[in-house]
Write a structure and sequence with these properties.
By secondary structure, the protein is an alpha+beta fold. It has one domain. Helices cover 33% and strands 31% of the residues. It has 3 helices and 6 strands. A hairpin with a 2-residue loop joins strand 1 and strand 2. The longest helix is centred in the middle third of the chain and has 25 residues. It is globular.
């Protein structure tokens, strides 16, 4: 639905442990994609089933894509922060969040985005990530999933959000 196979993508994708990692052309991690497998992951048998779904390039109905949103650079500082620095950092981050919000308002229908939520990154408490729920048919497999998600990635990159 989203992509065309005649275009070479600048994005790279790697499948690992039921999720897809998306890298930019500099091999920097840009996003994670969590397909909606429609099962509760509680046993190794389900992990094996998910592996088979990916290996056989099955179709799933959407999933969640997780992007870095803002870098706070305010937490866990051993030295105190200058008040003006904190104000500027917060104002810049508020502006970036507003850009995300505006982009989502203009593009949610185009990319079948049905939900969004913000989380603190597990790897970096200063990073807020945004999770977008996608409701479209996606064929599993590194190449196929990348074809489906590349237009979304490209638009976010053009909007300077990635």
């Amino acid at each position: 639905m989203f992509g065309s196979e005649d275009k070479k993508s600048k994005w790279k994708m790697e499948y690992e442990d039921t999720i897809y990692k998306i890298y930019d052309w500099n091999r920097i991690l840009a996003a994670y994609f969590f397909p909606k497998y429609d099962l509760v992951k509680t046993t190794d048998i389900e992990d094996e089933f998910i592996e088979k779904l990916n290996q056989s390039h099955e179709k799933v109905r959407g999933g969640t894509i997780l992007f870095p949103m803002i870098k706070l650079d305010l937490l866990d500082k051993e030295e105190g922060l200058d008040l003006d620095y904190a104000i500027v950092a917060l104002e810049q981050n508020v502006q970036r969040i507003k850009v995300w919000k505006e982009w989502l308002l203009q593009n949610h229908g185009k990319f079948a985005i049905i939900g969004r939520a913000i989380y603190t990154s597990r790897e970096d408490r200063n990073m807020l990530s945004i999770a977008l729920g996608i409701d479209s048919n996606i064929i599993l497999g590194e190449k196929e999933t990348l074809v489906a998600l590349s237009p979304l990635l490209d638009e976010l990159h053009e909007a300077d959000l990635l």
